[in-house]
Amino acid sequence: MKRFIESLFGKMVLTVAVFIVMWPLLDLAWTKLITRSVFEYRVVSHLVIPAAIAVVWALLEHFVFRKKDK
């Protein structure tokens, strides 16, 4: 399991899962608490965009921000 989490695919899967769950929850909190507007779930803005951002984030984290092994 540890090898899966450390792999690029594992990082992408976990990051996408977290982004897909957290993005709509943060948007719901924003609409209810700050703007006082109606929350509307949309596939593109609550599923596709967070997944794309999560993939880019996982790639950047894996290739750019990884720590160097000594």
Q: What is the topology?
A:
Blueprint: H1 2-6, H2 8-34, H3 43-63
Helix pairs in contact: 2-3
How does this model look, in words?
With 70 residues, this protein is mainly α. The chain contains 3 helices and no strands. It has helices at 2-6, 8-34, 43-63. Helix 2 (8-34) packs across helix 3 (43-63). The mean pLDDT is 89.
**Rg, Å, rounded:** 15 Å
Number of helices: 3
Unreliable stretches: none
Rounded to the nearest angstrom, the distance between the terminal CA atoms is 24 Å
Quick overview of this protein structure:
This protein has about 70 residues and is an all-alpha fold.
List keywords for this structure.
70 residues; 0% strand
